[in-house]
Write a structure and sequence with these properties.
10 strands, single chain, 138 residues, 1 helix
Length: 138
């Protein structure tokens, strides 16, 4: 599945303010039905347009396995795959946010179209490299 990803503008500013600790804070991923109000200007997690369905709880799932690395002029972060099982729902994208820091947004993922599941829903993270990791900043 092709995913377009963007860091939120507020997250970029908060990096310089030292707000986020992606290795120790509780980072969540929430799923959404539409993106009318979810974009690079999103500042915090919201339940507006969040999905409902079997196996899904509002707020999404805690992301685990965070690794922070750098190469050249790029810093990057990746996480373990996120799995909902059992699951029966449709999602068009996701918001990654920091629950430890007042639900501040980190990144928006657009799945490109609705992704429907009837048993298991897995978000497979990209390879953990400076050109492919989920979150990259240079």
């Amino acid at each position: 599945m092709s995913i377009s990803q963007t860091l939120t503008t507020s997250f970029k500013a908060q990096l310089f303010e030292g707000v986020h600790d992606l290795l120790n804070d509780d980072i969540y991923i929430a799923l959404y039905t539409a993106f009318a109000d979810l974009n690079e200007n999103t500042t915090i997690y919201s339940t507006s347009e969040e999905i409902t369905g079997t196996g899904y709880v509002a707020g999404g799932k805690l992301m685990t396995g965070a690794t922070v690395s750098s190469y050249g002029n790029t810093a990057y972060v990746n996480f373990a795959n996120v799995v909902w099982d059992p699951a029966a729902f449709t999602s068009f994208g996701a918001l990654i946010y920091n629950a430890t820091k007042g639900n501040k947004s980190i990144a928006v993922l657009n799945f490109g179209s609705g992704k429907t599941c009837e048993n298991t829903f897995t978000i497979t993270m990209p390879s953990n490299t400076y050109t492919t990791a989920l979150i990259r900043y240079s």
